[in-house]
Amino acid sequence: MKLRRFLAIFICAVMTLTLLASCTDEGKEGVNNQLSNNQDISADEGKIVADNPILWADVPDPDVIRVDDTYYMTSTTMYFNPGVPIMKSYDLVHWELIGYVYETLENSLRTDLIGENNSYAQGSWASSIRYYDGYFYVLFCALDQGKSYIFKTEDIENPDWIRYDFNRVFHDASLFFEDDGTPYIIYGAGDVYITELEKDCSKVKEGGVDQKLLNTGVAEGLSGAEGSHFYKIDGTYYLTMISYATNTPGVARCELCFRSDELLGEYEGKVVLCDSMDYYGNGVAQGGIVETPEGDWYALLFQDHGAVGRIPVLQPVTWVDGWPMMGENGEAVKQIAVTSDAESWQESTLMYNDEFDYDENKLALYWQWNHNPEEELWSVTDREGWFRITTGRVDSDIFHAKNTLTQRTEGPTCTSEVLLDASCLNNGDYAGIAAFQSFCGMVGVRVDEDGKKYAYFARQTRGEEMSIVTEDEITQDEIYLKIEYRFSKIDENGIITSEDQARFYYSLDGENWVKIGKGFTMSYSLDLFTGYRTALYCYSTIAEGGHADFDYYHTTKGER
User: Fold this and answer.
1) Top-confidence residue, 386 or 248
2) Dist. CA 61–CA 379, nearest whole Å
3) Nearest to 124, CA basis, from 172, 85, 170, 76
4) Do the beta carbons of residue 309 and residue 60 sit within 8 Å?
5) For labelling, which of 22, 37, 183, 238 has a CA lying 20 to 30 Å from the CA of 489?
6) pTM for the whole structure
7) How far apart are CA 392 and CA 377, in angstroms?
């Protein structure tokens, strides 16, 4: 079985012309796909040319800092755990996932998926990362908890986090340290507020600054801005934000900047970027700016990109009359030159091949749980080389199920494949893999009340009943499952070359695949507020105690 699977994987890899690298050291190295369409080196010595997006995956609300020669980025992961990913880079293009701020944030009815309670579209939002006086700080709010948090550590790559809780929601906030070390939180939407903290950031300073800072309508008549990123550069205070009320036809949102000579003074505003890179009018905006050791400036922003989610886009920053103008000549660039020791651009990835061969019950960094896991009901050590989900209760569907394990998908195309052992499923159990968002597609095995097993394809919109589209009775326990993703893409001529589509397959031998069900059109929904992920799931509808075993998880990514 192992030899046959290896040969199938090898043949598939050759046919898709994909270069895969397995990850070791708990998943920190990842999988890099070498692209052939971007080998040209910039005329400037020591620079490479990279394509946008720098990661074609769901990495929304990025914030970025540089400490010495290393860049660090944080992002939003909402209800997935562990939460608030931390990535590092030496050139703003090659990114490596190095950890998370927390394993689980809270234990509550919502985070634990109790009854009809959940944290979908909530959890941790829009983090802010800063470094000051030997400490790294990460600030974010969690809407489902009605709270905000600051975590700090001296070593972000081997952190021992100190946690501070605030019983206030600092919406899309930015942490800022004044020259004398006084910390402030700048936050809000439309109206922007500023709140002073104690010097150690442990709590709001009693009697300190806690007031409205400005209204974002001062920027050329635009309003409703949010997503604060606050800086002091050469004595001037700068606040960059995203605005959804734009004056540019065909562009859904813009990046604004506000500045003042005094922290609590009068602010003036300006649009610094309003362009969609020809993608459905979805503007490139919201993120941090950072200076390189060479004195160049860049903005790390995001763009809504259909079903795959919100993808990070790197833009040059040019200072014009004291304003950080982003892109080139008012347009977001599709290629960008950066200083790098790399000889060519090698695209970063957040997808990971896993054989589930672990010495301890701990998964690679690239995995995240849907809500809080039940630690005693999953394992990668109970059966050597297999990931096991055991059901501990009866649930109605995948959106209520515990211990659903997820990985991001990536554009423009990718596949996810597993080998499922369904021999220990109980009557009424469902197990398999899903294209997971509010409109969910599932391929897997279900066991009916009489004990018969079926390979099935189903669709479900959260809040509605699952619909089994088609199914085939099977008599064996091991079954191969696969999902193929094709995400929306528009070429340089503005022509749509693919749509947000998924295809679902099963195989009884790992070589001959049966396409199950018809087309499935993916749709990004604010109901979950995250891009499509592949989810490994198992849940019971009649009696708890059954379990599903997954032998491996293999993923490939197509060329741009």
Assistant:
1) 386
2) 32
3) 76
4) yes
5) 22
6) 0.91
7) 7
